[in-house]
Every structure is written in structure tokens, then in C-alpha cells.
TrEMBL record:
Keyword Transmembrane helix appears in the UniProt entry: yes
Organism: Oribacterium parvum ACB1
Source superkingdom: Bacteria
UniProt entry tagged with the keyword Cell cycle: no
Signal peptide: none
Name listed for the protein in its UniProt record: Uncharacterized protein
UniProt entry keywords in alphabetical sequence: Membrane, Transmembrane, Transmembrane helix
Segments traversing the membrane: 6-25, 57-76, 96-113, 140-164, 170-190
Length: 196
């Protein structure tokens, strides 16, 4: 149980960065500047590469927010005398430079690992809002993938950095996915998000 609490304490800045990324991209000024990563281009099958929901601004905003949130979180934990509650600080010094860089890395991985899922969904014509339409098998598969894709890269990286066992890494990915669902439910409740 203590390990799970430490995992959440370690990952809280990424969760915050994800929420703030979504909120900031809803501001009309920023929303109007969201250019898709794929430049609106199609793949050889005639379908979009990633779609409109994956934007250059969203990608880099999440990367920067990850850095700033990790920086803030490290300072807060230090101020509260709880530095050792984060798995990262069992192996690395709680230093502003490290925090900003590791936060940016986590933010970057969060966005990067969403792209393969988006690419596959475009190939199979799976709608982001309808999650597979009437194709129940696809609906379930992509629902699970949507929850864990961004966590996959982060947890693999964290696992290497803090020497997680393979079992702990898999558990961390699924805990991340479960948390993703809970956070999305809250965002739907507050009308920030329309669907899971």
C-alpha cells in the first residue's frame, strides 16, 4: 500500500499537467492556434494520420507543463519535508534542474505514446467520441488503450529510473489507466470533457 501511495505522489505532477493541458487548450485564443501534428495530411490509405485532436500546441504545452508541475511539486515536497515519499527522490536529488527536465520528459512521453493509438484508430475508422461505434470488441480494446497509452511511456521510463520490477511496472500502468478514468469522470462532471 505504501508503494502505491508513493507511486501516486510521484505521478501527481503528470496528472496535474494533463488536466491543465486540457483546460488551457479550451481557451479560445489557444484553441484557435491548435494545428494538427499531421498537418491535416492523410496516410496512404486516404485517412488522416493522427486526426485533429493531436495538436502541435497540445504536445509542447504538455511537455512544458510537465516540467513546471514537477518543479512546483519538488519544491512543495521539500517544503513539507516529504521528499522521500516520491519514488524519484529515493534515487535522485530533489533539485530544480532535474525536476524540470524529468517533468518535461514525462510530459513528452505522455503525448508521444498517445500517437500510435491515434494512428491505429484512424486506420480502423474508430471515432474518438464513439469509441468503436457498434463494434463492441473494438470499443473495449480502444477504451483500455485510451486509458493506458500515455501511461505506458511514463511508467516504462519511471520503471527504469527507479528500478521497478516488471510486475510493479505493469501494475503502475494499470493504476495509471484507472486514475485516468477517474480524472476523466471528474472532468466530465465539471463539463471540461465530453466523453471518456
Amino acid at each position: 500500500m505504501q508503494w502505491i501511495l508513493s507511486l501516486y505522489i510521484t505521478m501527481f505532477p503528470v496528472i496535474l499537467a494533463g488536466v491543465f493541458n486540457m483546460l488551457l487548450l479550451k481557451i479560445p485564443f489557444l484553441k484557435s492556434r491548435c494545428k494538427p501534428i499531421d498537418g491535416g495530411k492523410n496516410w496512404t490509405d486516404g485517412k488522416r494520420i493522427f486526426g485533429d485532436s493531436k495538436s502541435v500546441l497540445g504536445f509542447w504545452l504538455m511537455t512544458l507543463l510537465g516540467g513546471f508541475m514537477e518543479l512546483f511539486w519538488g519544491l512543495l515536497l521539500q517544503g513539507l519535508g516529504e521528499t522521500k515519499r516520491s519514488l524519484l527522490y529515493l534515487y535522485f536529488e530533489n533539485a530544480p534542474g532535474f525536476n524540470f527536465l524529468i517533468g518535461m520528459l514525462f510530459g513528452f512521453l505522455y503525448m508521444l505514446f498517445e500517437l500510435p493509438n491515434s494512428f491505429i484508430k484512424r486506420r480502423l475508422s474508430v471515432s474518438a467520441s464513439e469509441q468503436g461505434d457498434r463494434r463492441r470488441g473494438l470499443k473495449l480494446i480502444f477504451f483500455v488503450l485510451d486509458q493506458i497509452d500515455s501511461m505506458l511511456g511514463i511508467m516504462l521510463c519511471l520503471g527504469i529510473l527507479v528500478h521497478l520490477t516488471p510486475v510493479q511496472t505493469v501494475l503502475a500502468i494499470f493504476l495509471g489507466g484507472f486514475t485516468h478514468v477517474l480524472v476523466n469522470c471528474l472532468l466530465i462532471l465539471f463539463r471540461v470533457r465530453k466523453y471518456l
